[in-house]
Every structure is written in structure tokens, then in C-alpha cells.
């Protein structure tokens, strides 16, 4: 078993730091007695064609899956979701406002250049630079990084961001407020470094295989759009000696049934997800291959509150109330999902949600209130509510959309036009607000409630820009500034209460992750609540 012990590491707690604590960095740990296959190649289903491989320009899960293999940030996660060293072999803080990261000196880019603190300064500044137009620029603002908000809003230059290279291997971050979970936030995709010279030389073309330079365990070898993305080991990676796989292939298969069939034909080792309608049968017939786990995620419908008819809170509430979440989770999904009545899932560490009033009603009572609200808003049989529902191409999303539209029709007489778009087009429509109601979902960027509640803050292009509540934004600011865990928890509940009152979204269910995994795949992280899977930790077992 390979374990690289790091001593004198600094752990974060509520306002405190602890020295002389050791971490273990993970690699492909092959248990004694396990015989490896001669051919070490892994094929993974990835749901959709990636929109980009640029960490500062993506906000989707298919992209994060691949980028996790190609680029390494300051920290990683182990199989159980614990934060462990990445490029930073240790870090320290005395006040949870100033964080100093000490980088490993053997970290290199795939072209042989050393990975330095200057790379992180460049990449963090690039993230908040308005010229980058990153969909995740708000992330550093939510971290309370010094001057991030003003830079994002064009009031200050990116060079004023609270980041500094003290020397080549010492990277320091300055926050405006104490954030005890800041190190966890550094594990996000947008926090991965990029190679400055390569980005500046090739612009948006830098991620092409012939140009790509990364610092992760793998590099881009071949990319055939809408067919496959092939990765091979990065020989310059600091821990390459413990990478077992020789090739990783990602397949962009949007149809879950087609993906399942390719899995059982032996073409795929690990699927992106499982078709809802086949789950129960698969559990019965192939229990060893089916993997199910609760994860940090909520599935919801987003209302465009800037467009009629959803500028009326009565309409938003009526549509949300009329969704029978028990039927969705038990009859249609049936994989262990929980009905959602708030944005933040209960699995989040330290989150103790208070159910909103409508969640305590029976579905019959919710339906009655929905009819009443819709009538108040001026809609009835002679003047039915009509709108369109946007979702990205997926059999699972389609099945839910059809079922929920049927509930709305039966309960409220609503006429819904279903509109599906492929992933890239859907993302563009969602960002630009070109929809009335849109299928959406959020998976936590770190295991703390703010990763969900910050989503609806007014400047957040992923959700909050379609809400725009000064009262809510003020609560977000209070939570960021708070140094008390109990006080933050109370504020998070206030935020959820306000969301239930204003209903800018209709929470539907709390995620579980289901996928098919061939038993010959070793090192699969079955207990990581953020579903962060690193191919460098996996291997193929001889059959």
C-alpha cells in the first residue's frame, strides 16, 4: 500500500488551526493478493459531450469528471470525501482569513515546467477577470477572497485579488472574512490551475490534444467530438509511478438505455448513470454491478422570474405545490431519492433543515392550495396557464418532465410544451435566461450548506440572476461574515425559508448517484458524497 505521509499539516476547525497532523495522499492502492489485468484501460460513460476542458470556463458535471483527471488543484479528495493534499502538500492558517499553501516541489506540467505559486495566482485572477466571462466567477466572491467582488463587477483590476506568490512554492490567499471551510472550497474544478504560456499562445484552442498542457495524472491524447475523449498518463505527474491505468476513455452517451446496452456488451466499464425505468430490474439481476450512493445534490425546476407568467409568485407556488414529490421519488425513480422541499439536501454536513409549511401538508392539501393560487392569478379552464419546460436531452429528464407535466395538467389544467436541447445549447439557453421553466440541478462544490444557498445570490449566473432578492442577498452576506457555526446554520435556515416564500425554484428531489460499474474496476470511490472519482485511483482487476 502506498501512502505518502505529510507531517506538520494544518487542519481547519472553527477559527482554529492544528499543527503536527498527518494526511495521506491517495493513489491507486491495490490490496494485497489482488491480481491486476494485463490491459489497464478504463472506459467511462460521461453523459454528454463536454462543453470545454478549460476549468475557468465550465460549470457542468461532464466537464468536471474529465478535468479532475487532467488538472490538479491545491487539494484533492480521498475515497471517503476527506480533503487531502494535491499540489499543496500542506497549508496553515491562524485566523481562517489568511491561508498559506506550501506547494510540493516535484509537481510539474506535462511539458516539464514546474508548477509554481505563480500559476495559481494567474489562474485565480483569470477566473474573476470579466474578460474571461467565467460562469464560476462568483465562486471566489462567495469565498470572500479579497477584492473578488469588485473585480467581478469591473470596479477593480484583477491584479488586486487577494492572492500572492510569496516565492515559487508558497502561495498565500487573503480573505475579507474568516471562512473556516475555505480549504474545502479549493477542491472545486474552477480552482484548477492552467498553464499561462499555453493559454496565452493558443487562446480557446489550448485544450486541443496537440496543444494541451496539464498538471494532472493524465493528458489529452485524442478528442473526437461527440464520439470519444481519450486520456493517457502524464509522465511528468509527480505521482505517476502509482498511476496504474494506461488509458482512460470518456464516451458522451446521452441515452441511458444505449449506455446500459454498451455496458453489458463489454464496451463500457462504468456508466454515467442508470435509466430510471431499468433500475429495479438491474438491482435484481445485476446487484454486483449496480452502485448507489447518496450525494450532495438537488434536482429542481428553475423559474424565470423576469418573464411572465413566472414573475407572479402565486403562479410559481402553484406550479411547485402541484408536483407530487412522493410519486416522483418512490414510483418513478425508486432508487432512494428523497423528496426535496428546500435547495440544500439533508446529507450536507451540519445542515439541520426546518421543513417549510407546505412540506407538512398532504399532497391533496397542496393541490387545493395550488388551484386557489392559480385562480387568484387569473387562470382557469377558460383561460388556462400555458408555458414551456426546457430540459437537456436525457431519457431520465424526459420521463420526469412528461410525468410532472401530466400532474400539472390533471391538477391545474395547465398546458405545458416540453422542449429538449443538447447539453451545450441547453447551457447557453439557461445562462441567457431563454426559457420560462428549466430543468436544473446542483451538486455541492464542497460539503457545507453555503455551496447550495449561495446559488441563489443575485450575482450568481447559475441561479441567482433569475431571482434577484435584496433580502436574500443580505442573508448570504451575513452568512459569509459570520464566524459562528451556530449562527451560520440559523442563517441558512432563514435563506431556505425565504426561498420557500418566494419560490424562485421548485425543489423536486435529493440526489442519489446510480451507475453500473464492472466488478473488475478496482478503486471505485463508493462513499464519496460529492462523487469525485479520480481515474488515477482506479485499476483493472484480472478476471
Highlighted features:
4-stranded mixed beta sheet, disordered N terminus, 6-stranded mixed beta sheet, 28% helix, alpha+beta
Based on Cα principal axes, name the global outline.
globular
Instruction: Provide mean pLDDT, rounded.
Output: 92
Number of strands: 20
Instruction: Write down the Rg.
Output: 23 Å
Largest sheet: 6 strands, mixed
Structural class: alpha+beta
Quote the distance from N terminus to C terminus: 21 Å
In which range does the helix fraction lie?
A: 25-40%
Low-confidence spans:
1-24
β content, as a range? 15-25%
The oligomerization state is single chain
Helix run count: 16
Please give the order of strands in the largest beta sheet.
Answer: 14-18-13-17-15-16
What does this protein look like?
Helix content is 28%, strand content 23%. The chain has 543 residues and is an alpha+beta fold. The protein has a six-stranded mixed β-sheet with strand order 14-18-13-17-15-16. A hairpin with a 2-residue loop joins strand 8 and strand 9. The two termini are 21 Å apart. Mean pLDDT is 92; it is low at 1-24.
Amino acid at each position: 500500500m502506498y501512502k505518502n505521509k505529510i507531517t506538520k499539516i494544518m487542519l481547519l476547525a472553527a477559527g482554529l488551526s492544528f499543527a503536527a497532523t498527518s494526511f495521506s495522499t491517495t493513489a491507486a492502492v491495490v490490496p494485497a493478493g489482488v491480481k491486476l489485468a494485463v490491459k489497464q484501460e478504463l472506459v467511462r460513460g460521461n453523459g454528454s459531450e463536454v462543453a470545454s476542458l478549460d476549468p475557468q470556463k465550465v460549470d457542468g458535471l461532464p466537464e468536471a469528471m474529465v478535468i479532475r483527471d487532467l488538472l490538479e488543484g491545491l487539494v484533492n479528495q480521498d475515497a471517503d470525501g476527506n480533503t487531502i493534499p494535491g499540489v499543496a502538500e500542506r497549508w496553515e492558517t491562524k485566523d481562517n482569513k489568511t491561508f498559506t499553501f506550501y506547494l510540493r516541489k516535484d509537481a510539474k506540467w506535462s511539458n516539464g515546467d514546474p508548477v509554481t505559486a505563480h500559476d495559481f495566482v494567474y489562474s485565480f485572477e483569470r477566473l474573476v477577470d470579466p474578460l474571461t466571462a467565467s460562469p464560476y466567477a462568483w465562486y471566489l466572491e462567495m469565498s470572500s477572497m479579497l477584492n473578488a467582488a469588485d473585480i467581478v463587477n469591473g470596479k477593480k483590476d484583477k491584479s488586486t485579488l487577494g492572492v500572492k506568490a510569496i516565492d515559487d512554492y508558497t502561495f498565500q490567499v487573503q480573505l475579507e472574512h474568516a471562512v473556516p471551510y475555505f480549504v474545502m472550497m479549493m477542491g472545486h474544478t474552477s480552482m484548477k490551475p492552467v498553464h499561462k504560456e499555453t493559454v496565452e499562445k493558443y487562446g480557446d484552442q489550448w485544450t486541443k490534444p496537440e496543444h494541451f498542457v496539464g498538471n494532472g495524472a493524465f493528458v489529452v491524447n485524442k478528442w473526437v467530438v461527440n464520439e470519444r475523449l481519450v486520456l493517457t498518463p502524464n509522465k511528468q505527474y509527480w505521482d505517476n509511478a502509482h498511476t496504474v491505468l494506461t488509458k482512460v476513455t470518456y464516451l458522451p452517451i446521452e441515452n441511458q438505455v444505449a449506455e446500459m446496452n454498451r455496458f453489458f456488451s463489454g464496451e463500457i466499464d462504468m456508466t454515467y448513470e442508470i435509466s430510471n425505468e431499468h433500475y429495479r430490474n438491474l438491482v435484481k439481476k445485476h446487484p454486483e454491478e449496480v452502485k448507489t450512493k447518496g450525494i450532495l445534490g438537488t434536482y429542481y425546476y428553475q423559474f424565470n422570474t423576469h418573464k411572465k407568467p413566472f414573475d407572479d409568485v402565486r403562479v410559481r407556488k402553484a406550479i411547485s405545490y402541484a408536483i407530487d414529490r412522493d410519486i416522483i421519488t418512490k414510483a418513478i425513480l425508486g432508487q432512494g431519492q428523497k423528496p426535496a422541499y428546500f435547495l440544500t439536501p439533508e446529507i450536507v454536513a451540519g445542515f439541520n433543515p426546518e421543513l417549510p409549511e407546505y412540506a407538512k401538508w398532504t399532497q391533496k392539501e397542496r393541490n387545493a392550495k395550488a388551484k386557489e393560487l392559480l385562480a387568484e392569478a387569473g387562470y382557469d379552464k377558460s383561460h388556462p396557464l400555458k408555458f414551456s419546460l426546457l430540459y437537456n436531452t436525457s431519457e431520465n429528464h424526459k420521463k420526469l418532465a412528461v410525468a410532472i407535466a401530466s400532474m400539472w395538467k390533471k391538477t391545474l389544467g395547465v398546458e405545458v410544451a416540453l422542449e429538449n436541447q443538447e447539453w451545450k445549447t441547453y447551457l447557453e439557453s439557461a445562462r441567457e435566461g431563454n426559457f420560462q421553466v428549466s430543468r436544473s440541478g446542483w451538486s455541492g462544490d464542497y460539503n457545507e450548506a453555503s455551496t447550495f444557498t449561495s446559488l441563489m445570490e443575485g450575482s450568481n449566473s447559475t441561479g441567482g440572476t433569475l431571482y434577484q432578492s435584496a433580502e436574500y442577498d443580505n442573508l448570504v452576506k451575513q452568512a459569509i461574515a459570520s464566524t459562528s457555526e451556530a449562527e451560520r446554520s440559523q442563517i441558512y435556515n432563514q435563506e431556505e425559508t425565504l426561498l420557500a416564500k418566494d419560490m424562485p425554484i421548485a425543489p423536486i428531489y435529493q440526489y442519489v448517484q446510480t451507475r453500473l460499474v464492472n466488478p473488475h474496476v478496482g478503486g471505485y470511490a463508493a462513499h464519496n458524497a460529492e462523487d469525485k472519482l479520480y481515474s488515477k485511483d482506479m485499476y483493472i482487476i484480472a478476471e
